[in-house]
């Protein structure tokens, strides 16, 4: 079955460009468009897309609030949100990730990256490029705790190895890179990531990365 995509952006020309790229792919179907967050909510309810390609800054309702409502506890369907941001990494993307977005993509990304990002998100994975997550979180460190706050009790449920994996996820490493760093198989890393998500009640590795920063487990800019 084709991946059903809803395009949400207040610039019609951008929506047209995205539509042309995506409609060239046999396994992707653009089922609708919206020019702001309120229209996006209506379209999600009516069209039941698999992936919402979501702009951040829009009139009436921005992409952060729309993402929160689409992915929240009262969600009306299975839609996952892939946020669009400008080249200089929009500060609101951090809020969108907290709100439940499965990842984000730069607006000037090549066509093949847009297609691949949609495939990845539709498959239930998170970031196309985990390293960008770290750059984003580091850039907007002022929005996050200083790292001096008490570590949440929930972290006590993790094993030492799971804490190691969580730190590496937060620092932008892919599963393959984590496997090489810890001298284990990629399958083992996937298992550890799954345990971390389950124990902490998180949906995906994007939320895990944000959690690691917000909890103070990883400090913005830290290397070790």
TrEMBL record:
The HTH luxR-type domain, residue ranges: 151-216
InterPro entries per record: CheY-like_superfamily, NreC/VraR/RcsB-like_REC, Sig_transdc_resp-reg_C-effctor, Sig_transdc_resp-reg_receiver, Tscrpt_reg_LuxR_C, WalR-like
Top-rank taxon, per record: Bacteria
UniProt keyword terms in alphabetical order: DNA-binding, Phosphoprotein, Transcription, Transcription regulation
Pfam families: GerE, Response_reg
Domain Response regulatory, first and last residues per copy: 4-122
Record-listed 4-aspartylphosphate modification sites: 55
Alphabetized Gene3D superfamilies for the sequence: 3.40.50.2300
Methyltransferase as UniProt keyword: no
CDD domains on file: LuxR_C_like, REC_NarL-like
SMART domains: HTH_LUXR (SM00421), REC (SM00448)
PANTHER family given in the database record: TRANSCRIPTIONAL REGULATORY PROTEIN NARL-RELATED, TWO-COMPONENT RESPONSE REGULATOR
The protein's name in its UniProt record: Response regulator transcription factor
Lineage of the species this protein comes from: Bacteria, Bacillati, Actinomycetota, Actinomycetes, Kitasatosporales
């Amino acid at each position: 079955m084709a991946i059903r995509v809803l395009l949400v952006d207040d610039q019609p020309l951008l929506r047209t460009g995205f539509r042309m790229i995506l409609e060239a792919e046999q396994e992707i179907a653009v089922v609708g468009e919206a020019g702001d967050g309120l229209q996006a909510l209506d379209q999600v309810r009516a069209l039941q897309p698999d992936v919402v390609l979501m702009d951040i800054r829009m009139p009436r309702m921005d992409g952060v609030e729309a993402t929160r409502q689409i992915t929240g506890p009262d969600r009306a369907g299975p839609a996952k949100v892939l946020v669009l941001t400008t080249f200089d990494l929009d500060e609101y993307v951090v809020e969108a990730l907290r709100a439940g977005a499965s990842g984000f993509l730069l607006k000037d990304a090549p066509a093949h990256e847009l297609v691949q990002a949609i495939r990845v998100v539709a498959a239930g994975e998170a970031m196309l490029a985990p390293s960008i997550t770290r750059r984003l979180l580091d850039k907007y460190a002022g929005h996050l705790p200083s790292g001096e706050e008490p570590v949440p009790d929930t972290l006590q449920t993790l094993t030492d190895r799971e804490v190691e994996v969580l730190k590496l996820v937060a620092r932008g490493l892919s599963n393959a890179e984590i496997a090489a760093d810890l001298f284990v198989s990629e399958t083992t890393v996937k298992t550890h990531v799954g345990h971390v998500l389950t124990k902490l009640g998180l949906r995906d590795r994007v939320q895990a990365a944000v959690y690691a920063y917000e909890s103070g487990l990883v400090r913005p800019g830290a290397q070790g």
